[in-house]
Amino acid sequence: MKKYSFKNDYSEGAHPNLLNALNDTNFIQTEGYSTDIFCLEASKILKNKIGKDDIDIHFVSGGTQANLIMISSALRPYESVISATTGHINIHEAGAIESTGHKINSIDTSAGKLTPELVEEILKFHTDEHMVKPKLVYISNSTEVGTIYKKHDLEALFEICRKYDLYLVMDGARLGSALTSPFNDLSLNDIANLCDMFYIGGTKNGALIGEAIIITNSKLKDDFRYHIKQKGGLIAKGRIFGIQFIELFKENLYFDLANHSNRMALKLAEGIKQLGFSFLYPPESNQIFPIFPKRLIDILLESFDFYIWKVIDEEHYAVRLVTSWATKENKIDEFLSIIQSFA
Amino acid sequence: MKKYSFKNDYSEGAHPNLLNALNDTNFIQTEGYSTDIFCLEASKILKNKIGKDDIDIHFVSGGTQANLIMISSALRPYESVISATTGHINIHEAGAIESTGHKINSIDTSAGKLTPELVEEILKFHTDEHMVKPKLVYISNSTEVGTIYKKHDLEALFEICRKYDLYLVMDGARLGSALTSPFNDLSLNDIANLCDMFYIGGTKNGALIGEAIIITNSKLKDDFRYHIKQKGGLIAKGRIFGIQFIELFKENLYFDLANHSNRMALKLAEGIKQLGFSFLYPPESNQIFPIFPKRLIDILLESFDFYIWKVIDEEHYAVRLVTSWATKENKIDEFLSIIQSFA
Amino acid sequence: MKKYSFKNDYSEGAHPNLLNALNDTNFIQTEGYSTDIFCLEASKILKNKIGKDDIDIHFVSGGTQANLIMISSALRPYESVISATTGHINIHEAGAIESTGHKINSIDTSAGKLTPELVEEILKFHTDEHMVKPKLVYISNSTEVGTIYKKHDLEALFEICRKYDLYLVMDGARLGSALTSPFNDLSLNDIANLCDMFYIGGTKNGALIGEAIIITNSKLKDDFRYHIKQKGGLIAKGRIFGIQFIELFKENLYFDLANHSNRMALKLAEGIKQLGFSFLYPPESNQIFPIFPKRLIDILLESFDFYIWKVIDEEHYAVRLVTSWATKENKIDEFLSIIQSFA
Amino acid sequence: MKKYSFKNDYSEGAHPNLLNALNDTNFIQTEGYSTDIFCLEASKILKNKIGKDDIDIHFVSGGTQANLIMISSALRPYESVISATTGHINIHEAGAIESTGHKINSIDTSAGKLTPELVEEILKFHTDEHMVKPKLVYISNSTEVGTIYKKHDLEALFEICRKYDLYLVMDGARLGSALTSPFNDLSLNDIANLCDMFYIGGTKNGALIGEAIIITNSKLKDDFRYHIKQKGGLIAKGRIFGIQFIELFKENLYFDLANHSNRMALKLAEGIKQLGFSFLYPPESNQIFPIFPKRLIDILLESFDFYIWKVIDEEHYAVRLVTSWATKENKIDEFLSIIQSFA
């Protein structure tokens, strides 16, 4: 690709520290399948960062895999998942959840976020054994449209889940970006206290590959490695997850990288806003959705790669711009200056 | 681990060339999900090495994943898989194939290898719609017990599969070791001509992570990426598979590494034989199964790690010794000298 | 139940002719699993009534079973089903379709009926392998809200399905009522020409138990009995389906019964309309949905059983009234006279 | 069929009492889906016959359905079922259990019966999360080869299941025949005390259609109707199960019918034995497996229908002869006299 890409946050490899660590540990012999010393060390570090000790940690190689394993492990066959219509599991996982036998009860949301009211609306509709039984609430943080859950949002979902005996599961593919958003007031510890299960995404925040599943609800811990194995998620050289997560979390790298990503996105958003353009969703993290005239989009596409997200009207589209830990600030400036020239 | 390990062939990281390549390409922006230039290049190189152009190549992160995706993609719901009782899918994948809805028809074999007679025995037993319909023959090369398929073995299976309209699928987790065995007479091209689908294992032969699925039967090619995605096997930074397979196959590294691994195993086997011990299975590749007295095993376990495989009698066990691309020759010598001291 | 029930069309047993036939044939020995002479004879009669010979006919014991077997037999794992949000498979089968691994793409409709535009809307949204691939259009005739597909409706769906290579499958749990509606212009032959698969419901139109699946698309015929068996639908004394369907179709009983059911429902609807009440959906078959004041509903519920379907406003509910082949006309009169007294 | 059939025990319809009861109750309106007064009454009667009140009872339409619903309801995704190799679920249900995602661990048995030793052999082999986790022991009584479990057999299995926290589930497709065998010392109450779940087969002992699932372990009771519905087993006119089981169990009909069936089989077995022939399995219930010369079989097949079961040697086959509640004694005599003429 000659054009600079704002298509996603997995366009580059890994942060150099992670590659160096893979290199440095390369000839140390270890056990297989994530039972090695590096995975153990990474778990210890993560427990410390999360501030909870009675949690289980597992590593898998991708987000769809994490979601399908977490969800299918928690449900009986007739139980279903509540998700925003825009939820990743509902539209961008090729039916992975249904492939494990479970229906997704989807519902339209404002800006990709579920609320207690929406959850209750679905529950009220499901009355007897002729219907599925909703049992798990799936959310993403940040959401598929870049918005984030605030502490009161998550607390409200936690309460409705306790009330109706539902599990609350968070897809954290972009959890780094959510937690370092200037609008965020949640900590990893909050999330661990409010969710039954979640995963911390590595791939989209500086890792080569790897996501860390955190199980806080002890009812969901038993035999979890069987679930991972059965779904093809147990990786022989699981050490590569441990080695990378040690680097990301032994100090503050994970948050530093996410912070850079957000800073780039929000600088871009601020610039776009000042040049007079509006947004499909409020810019809160590393995915932003400005609305541009088609002519401007054509010009921008000469130098940059990004996705057209939605037709607004005959003359305007919303586009998706994604930044990452590796985004170069001068490319942000360049992008803005093209818009400025146009405006 | 302080003790030197012969437990498996995934105890170390990756061959340095692969790590270097990951490093060198790290900041090149690419498309996601294995549609990047590296995966394209790796596919081109593999097609060249295989000597066939009309094949499809896909990358996934592990062997169980490769097996469950290949097999479930090829079968209708009531169709089943024929496998040796010792087959990896039958005992060491936690029911992954059944999890996709398919029965495995297992049958006892000599030294882990299926034969046309065994396949026919299963077919004759399955007569009507009250039973599953066997449709796919699954073999591993090398097998779970280190033996390999010779050309006439594979040709015979190919013919029986054509006769009964069955698919022939090869699990190549250790294909490198099979193809560089001194007893081997198969080429990659032969395998591509005789199998409908197979995978070339990276993880157990020098890669950090990654297996290459090769589809030769055009009936099995359609929409294969949907299958990968639905089962959680489509990886955002799929580039890491491409980058590694380029290194493994652009020249001869894949075979050189496997050759080293075999050479270490067969030196060990030869030494053990000369010291008067016998084997549970004939040593043909990088997994060997000598039968030792318990007292010798106890002594060896003080300096080495390996699995006890099978109780032979009150005084003797068969053990499994696995070498790899990274095995150090002086450790082979050390192991043999302990045996010699004992004998 | 002391109160007369308009809750559904399966409150009574079977039409006496069917019971008599079960009795008369009782001691004739037959083969099992629907390979008996009665099932063969019923198939011959049905082919004749449908006016097509190159179709396959199978019998199963219920509608959910028919739907899940038909749909799962036709799809590859990542393929999905398009259905109205109100579709039976989408809300009233406890996730049976998802249990076979397939996503339902549901979409809101007017009066429960899919249109080519709605089908295209779903297709346009599904662009690549990160999403499921819609492959089958599921409709019910009559629909879950009592409306029916007219010939031009079905022809239009047929065309869109041909255009995009989709299967068209009709749930005919209440096909008798649909085909004998005064608003109907479809024949069994039309349906067989326009659908790839459908079933003719026995249970809700005079049978004790049993539905007849008709496969018209030869691509969907192979090994269908395996699918039935695997899903638990192959019944040892399958003869009871054959015996009943012979009675229903050897002359005109099936249509006479449905006609009675419709006549009762539409007499009720006409009476209700004349008394000044409106309907949630246009009354077209044996399910009608008048909107009544709550006070009237309370009075009616003293003598009759029926479901409250939907809250319209604080003072009004829509109710569902279902008639059947066994509905007594004097109960219709009685119901209407209560309304008249109220008004 | 002009020839008299000993092929199975479902060649005829239902016992006349059941047909009469269906007739007598035909126009009584009831609730649907087995929530009607007849199913409630049948449950009450069954609880009384079983001598336990804290059990749940559900009705489904066939044995494969009963097995797949019972087993899939009890297991988590990676858990497996232990079964005799000859078990119905293992060979004669077209992969129905695997279709729900679960592996069957099959093991060769003597005369179709599992023992604690065989169960332990399987358990010992399954050591970690790379393998499935056996969780449920499936047995049939009578077995697929006509043998029965005696009280001490079942107690021993019960104990091993308690020891290893396994569920014990009995397939009672032919439970009537087992319980009325002259060799039997088990009661329904014993079975309810020793099994976590079982079903009482109606179809093969005088019913048109219908099996009664009995759940004794309260951990397995929750939401069972959801499982039935999701798998297509909830039947609109569920009343037909209730009506039939009332007739079968309100007095002693179920056992009288089974007793007749056994008496016919064992008279046949005794006659065959006296004429000098041996058996593949000991004749204990309504399925017997005599070994005949091929020439005799050819002669018998001129007047009778039955299955050839197994090739013994070039000159001899074992055949399967099945009697039922409807078997005519003069046909037994006729069959024996043909053999006598031959001998």
From TrEMBL, chains A, B, C, D:
GO terms for biological process: amino acid metabolic process. GO terms for molecular function: lyase activity; transaminase activity. Its cofactor is pyridoxal 5'-phosphate. InterPro entries: ArAA_b-elim_lyase/Thr_aldolase, PyrdxlP-dep_Trfase, PyrdxlP-dep_Trfase_major, PyrdxlP-dep_Trfase_small. Residues 33-289 form the Aromatic amino acid beta-eliminating lyase/threonine aldolase domain. Keywords: Aminotransferase, Pyridoxal phosphate, Transferase. Signal peptide: none annotated. It holds the Pfam family Beta_elim_lyase. The keyword Transferase applies. PANTHER family: L-THREONINE ALDOLASE-RELATED, LOW SPECIFICITY L-THREONINE ALDOLASE. Belongs to the threonine aldolase family. This is Aminotransferase class V-fold PLP-dependent enzyme.
